[in-house]
Specification:
- Two copies of one chain form a homodimer.
- By secondary structure, chain A is an alpha/beta fold.
- Helix content of chain A is 41%, strand content 17%.
- Chain A has 16 helices and nine strands.
- In chain A, strands 2, 3, 4, 5, 6, 7, 8 and 9 form an eight-stranded mixed beta sheet that branches.
- The longest helix of chain A has 14 residues.
- Chains A and B meet through β1, α1, α2, β4 and β5 of A and β1, α1, α2, α11 and β4 of B.
Chain lengths: 339, 339
């Protein structure tokens, strides 16, 4: 069949070819068929399960077919998309921030948990519990506009480094998961982050690191207030919790922001249990629940039931009952980080 | 230039043609050049201002160019995208719902504001004020799962009719605004609804009526709670206000859900003032603020400074100072509704 460029344009204008050509050029299956979209994954069961699921829900005519607008995939962040040990990156940020702000707060030298932070006494910081942690978060995360906070986060991430790996934190995204996010998007999924972490702490960098734009990031938040300052509208961050996007809060956050039930959910801890339940136990046929199990002490960390951050206990039990896929990082991932 | 289909595919696989073809088939400028994307608009100043803005921010190399991921446009709903007089559709829903539920609540016959609703005594309903209204909203909007509420809304909309126009409420979307939403999306904008109305009241139908998917609807909400019921995860709607997405709440809601400052905002009342300020007064060069002014008593309604619903007073004053575009419905719209 010969088609001149002019006839091509004419047909296209009539819309006759538009759909077919979109299929040819927009469909990932043609361009991807030649190369593995998940090169950092070993050819083990989890990769097969993920690929089988994606093929099932994207195959037109399949009984499991899901129309593109409904292909929502939700990902926990800490421990699922990037390293969360030995402490959440956001906590490392808060501790550094206390040190930066200390000269303006001479009183912190004598008040806990600030004193302990300044002295590097992490045991006492931990002992200050939820109340102490909340105090640290509020003085470091509130009392400024959202624009200013975004800048503080961006500046910190550009210079801070993970002590063990000696790399910027944003380079500690799991390469197999970054590939998975792209693979899902290439198959018409919308990828969302649903994290217990602060939504404004994540948004400045998730697009660059994961390809997830700010409007697809759901997280915990503090209250903000609209203020006109010298004819300039600002949003001011108040030292008051607005929403905790963790555990049973995750389905609530998903519904609040997405308004659809996802068809795939990825987590790594008991904090993700309800999100995986909400996603996979709705009675619909093809739904995917995946847990990242940290089993690689050498390349990353090994932890599950006996850890403070990212404990994987109830969710691991639920996985075997519910049929969720469990990724064994050591066995299933060729590499952990980007080279 | 002659191109065989096979060579076409070969070139496409190499990616040589992909970009060019995408430009041809995905770009609205080619297909739209022949036909007016805003046929229900008269060729008056507002249409010109909107088109000029869109061309400015989408023209690569222009000093006002905005990359596609940042092209966020936010729209109020009641009075901006569909009719809000003589009462918000959501209130009409609540009143009908009270009548439907009344047999299960014999006590309502003697208790205000329910008694007044059942007797059709709208004066007393109005006199019950915010407290009465909240009571009506809670008994009609809470106490069920989000899935059940969605069904209730969908069922009601399929049978309810606006008394004046004798059409389903969803047919009272403003045709010029529906065209505008599509025009913006064709130019790479993401269109969001930012309404004082209930987010779960809108989501079941905004995609069909406006082309706005659930995850791009921001609105007021009540609290929900995750519950496992007989091994089935549900979200239960509690009779407690979560967030009021109106006035100074709109920028807060936008930041909470989108996490970017929009570049275009459309409203019709003082409830949209802060949203328009937040969008247009950030110091960036090309931002668009638009107000729909209800001036057409014959085809729709005429109201501004002296009305209870959708009062346009302060925002109208601000428009002339700030340079927002004001749509005169009578003069600027060829038609109001779809035929």
């Amino acid at each position: 069949m010969l088609v001149t460029r002019i006839e091509f344009l004419r047909l296209a204008r009539q819309g006759v070819l538009a759909i077919g050509l979109f299929a040819v050029f927009a469909s990932p299956t043609i361009t991807r068929a030649q190369s593995d979209p998940l090169p950092s994954w070993n050819d083990t069961a989890p990769k097969a399960a993920i690929v089988a699921f994606v093929e099932k829900v994207t195959r037109a005519g399949s009984s499991d077919f899901v129309p593109e607008p409904e292909r929502m995939a939700v990902f926990d962040n800490d421990g699922t998309l990037w390293v969360e040990h030995p402490m959440y990156t956001q906590l490392a940020f808060a501790l550094d921030r206390v040190k930066t702000l200390a000269p303006q707060h001479p009183e912190w030298k004598d008040v806990q948990p600030f004193k302990a932070v300044l002295e590097g006494d992490m045991k006492t910081v931990a002992a200050s519990g939820e109340k102490g942690l909340l105090q640290l978060l509020m003085v470091t995360h509130a009392g400024m506009t959202v624009d200013d906070f975004q800048k503080v986060v961006t500046d910190w991430l550009s210079s801070a480094r993970d002590p063990r790996f000696n790399r910027p934190y944003t380079e500690l995204a799991y390469q197999p998961m970054v590939e998975l996010l792209a693979y899902l998007r290439a198959n018409g999924f919308k990828t969302f982050i649903v994290s217990g972490g602060g939504v404004e702490f994540m948004r400045p960098w998730t697009e660059k690191v994961y390809g997830v734009p700010p409007e697809q990031v759901i997280g915990s938040s503090i209250k903000t207030e609209f203020r006109m300052q010298d004819d300039t509208p600002t949003l001011y961050r108040l030292p008051e919790v607005n929403f905790i996007d963790d555990k049973a809060g995750k389905p609530v956050g998903i519904n609040q922001q997405i308004g659809r039930r996802p068809i795939a959910a990825f987590g790594n801890s008991d904090g993700d249990l309800e999100m995986l339940q909400w996603t996979t136990m709705a009675g619909a046929p093809a739904r995917l629940g995946v847990l990242v199990h940290h089993t690689d002490e050498e390349r990353e960390y090994a932890y599950d039931r006996n850890t403070e951050f990212g404990r994987l206990d109830k969710a691991l039990d639920a996985a075997s009952i519910t049929g969720w896929t469990v990724i064994d990082m050591k066995a299933d991932w060729k590499k952990i980080f980007k080279d």
